[in-house]
Specification:
The protein is an alpha+beta fold and 171 residues long. It has a single domain (4-170), classed as Jelly Rolls (Sandwich), CATH 2.60.120. Helices cover 22% and strands 26% of the residues. It is built from two helices and ten strands, in the order βαβαββββββββ. Strands 1, 2, 3, 4, 5, 8 and 10 form a seven-stranded antiparallel beta sheet that branches. A three-stranded antiparallel beta sheet has the order 7-6-9, with no helix packed on it. The longest helix is centred in the middle third of the chain and has 25 residues, at 46-70.
């Protein structure tokens, strides 16, 4: 019998450490940012545009794998992407208490989350149900954003934690 944790898929080294470092550097070039909408910045350089295009291709490929795992009949025939957002969590900062990714009417269209860690972090684990996920550069977590999947981002201790997130949603 499947447990809810079976629906949380982890992909090691999904994007290279070099791309992760580039995205962090780009993020840090924007003054006073705690979040950065990467999608809105995709035309700012050829590197950002290329990375954005590769991320879209990766999401489509992994979405298709995830659909097969779950039985693709449960998913919408067409979907749309939300923007790719980079979030920075500073040392000793609690991101939030346990939460789910659907909190408002506007969020209710979400049906699948894609979350990449952009750097290693000794602390700052993501805690889902009975699963603790260690932040490592390039690691991707794919999961349903529904109420059955509450999670918490533990605050990092020594270095900031950077996360890149997008969602698929009903069109």
């Amino acid at each position: 019998m499947a447990s809810l944790c079976d629906f949380i898929h982890i992909y090691e080294n999904n994007i290279s450490k070099e791309v992760c470092e580039f995205l962090i550097s780009f993020f840090e070039s924007i003054p006073n940012a705690n979040t950065l909408n990467l999608t809105d910045h995709r035309e700012s350089s050829s590197e950002i545009s290329a990375i954005h295009n590769e991320l879209v291709k990766m999401v489509i490929h992994i979405r298709d794998e995830y659909y097969q795992f779950c039985d693709d009949r449960v998913f919408p025939e067409t979907n749309a992407f939300e923007k790719f957002i980079i979030t920075k969590i500073n040392p000793e900062e609690e991101y939030e208490k346990a939460y789910v990714d659907i909190k408002t009417y506007d969020d209710a269209r979400r049906f699948l989350c894609f979350k990449w860690y952009l750097n290693d972090n000794v602390a700052g684990q993501s805690r889902f149900l009975d699963l603790n996920i260690q932040p490592e550069a390039g690691k991707l977590i794919v999961y349903p954003p529904f109420w059955l999947f509450p999670h918490k981002e533990e605050g990092p201790i020594e270095t900031s934690k950077y996360i890149l997130t997008t969602y698929l949603h009903y069109k």
